[in-house]
């Protein structure tokens, strides 16, 4: 492809011979016209994303990278950052799974047997938590509460006895990040729905 000056448009992995879109790249990945190859980079996101190249001798870069799990393509060049890729649903899920696996391993190795005295103290603290903060008893069995508890255990393991006030965020900070997280998930879902509709319409 040539720009107004007549020169070829180059990217980090070669010359892009034609303009591709998410839809065409997705189709070519499914048909085998395009394949995924490793992307060099220091960011952990490249464990889940690879360059999309044409399946020929040159393996010319298409201008897109794609998730190795769901094959969703994202436009990318050497001047792009990874912020959009990091917000991708598969990256979020993978990060959560890795963290949970690490925590599960820590718990199984370090806390094989919990003393009855410690269990009794945990019951007492749980009752006090529900009474003081006026929370339903069922909150103790909530997956979100347990995930937070596992995280706090990990912090305690790494940094020892720390002041909880130095770690826990202010409610305003939680509120702002809740809105931001919801918007990120909404945008990702919207992109997936639009891509699906366009793919179906193009068939």
From TrEMBL:
<feature type="domain" description="Hermes trasposase DNA-binding">
    <location>
        <begin position="108"/>
        <end position="173"/>
    </location>
</feature>
<dbReference type="Pfam" id="PF10683">
    <property type="entry name" value="DBD_Tnp_Hermes"/>
</dbReference>
<dbReference type="InterPro" id="IPR018473">
    <property type="entry name" value="Hermes_transposase_DNA-db"/>
</dbReference>
<protein>
    <submittedName>
        <fullName>DBD Tnp Hermes domain-containing protein</fullName>
    </submittedName>
</protein>
<dbReference type="InterPro" id="IPR036236">
    <property type="entry name" value="Znf_C2H2_sf"/>
</dbReference>
């Amino acid at each position: 492809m040539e720009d107004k000056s007549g020169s070829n448009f180059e990217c980090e992995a070669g010359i892009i011979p034609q303009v591709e879109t998410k839809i065409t790249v997705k189709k070519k990945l499914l048909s085998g016209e395009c394949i995924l190859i490793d992307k060099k980079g220091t960011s952990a996101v490249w464990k889940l994303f690879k360059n999309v190249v044409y399946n020929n001798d040159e393996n010319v870069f298409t201008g897109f990278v794609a998730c190795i799990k769901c094959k969703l393509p994202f436009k990318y060049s050497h001047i792009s950052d990874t912020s959009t890729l990091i917000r991708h649903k598969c990256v979020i899920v993978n990060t959560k799974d890795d963290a949970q696996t690490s925590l599960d391993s820590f718990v199984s190795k370090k806390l094989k047997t919990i003393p009855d005295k410690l269990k009794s103290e945990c019951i007492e603290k749980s009752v006090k938590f529900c009474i003081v903060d006026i929370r339903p008893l069922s909150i103790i069995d909530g997956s979100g509460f347990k995930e937070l508890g596992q995280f706090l255990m990990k912090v305690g393991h790494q940094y020892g006895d720390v002041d909880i006030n130095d770690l826990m965020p202010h409610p305003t900070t939680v509120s702002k990040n809740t809105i931001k997280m919801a918007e990120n998930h909404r945008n990702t879902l919207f992109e997936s729905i639009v891509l699906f509709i366009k793919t179906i319409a193009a068939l």
